[in-house]
Design a protein that fits this description.
Number of helices: 8
Largest sheet: 7 strands, mixed
Strand content: 5-15%
Number of strands: 9
Oligomer: single chain
Shape: globular
Strand order of the largest sheet: 1-3-2-4-7-5-6
Radius of gyration: 18 Å
Amino acid sequence: MDLPLDTLLPYALLRPAPQTMPLVLASPHSGREYPAALLDASRLDAHALRRSEDSFVDELFAAAPLQGAPLLAARFPRVWCDVNREPWELDPAMFDGPLPSWVNTASPRVGAGLGTIARIVANGEPVYRRKLAFAEAEARVRDAWQPYHAALAALIAETRGRFGTCLLVDCHSMPAHPQSGPAPDMVLGDAHGTACAPRATRLVEEFLTGLGYRVRRNDPYAGGYVTRHYGRPREGQHALQIEIARGLYMDEARIERADGFASLRRDLSLLLEHLAATDWDFLGGI
């Protein structure tokens, strides 16, 4: 099912009634409302642009409010504005003039073509047929990045105020990668133990492993900007990224739900039910 959307906001927010556990779930890359300005400027068609989506991840975790946790989901696509980046990670080669000196033009993400405004889609194809004006990036940060993070920060603060602590679960999906040996079904990223209490990571890992999934930690995804920025365990604020193999639930070429979608959503609902029954006092806080 699709999330109900307020057309005035760049995100959807599903709230529980009431919130009964100190968790916030977020899906920053499942947005699928493609602005006309992006389609006009792109050399790719809409289907090719969707290769960068974490398609349907918001639906996979749609049971979160039923289990007592809010779910925040971006409506705009990652290729329009990536909220799992700093607000100003920009590639100067994409723009028609010099960028302000305070813009981060040297990050590894920018070098890979995947800054706040992506230069390429997931398979490496360039997105744009023309150079962008810096004003276009400013508008995307103002209208997409900033409201999304304002909503996320408010949810975390509200949760900490209610429970004294918060665990942010940042939900993603990962494409198939050629590799030797069996590929993981899920990767948990806690910035190598610096963004989340190890006990919380282990709790999620053990439950998913018990369901039969191959789970790996921090390899190859240790967590992006969201995990590292919001994960402050010493303050009782934790962040855990979860990456789910797209092959479990979708046809990557067609960008369609596959036969495994329903069973995976059921298993993730069981995970949420397990988390709802957990005593989170061990997370601590101020």
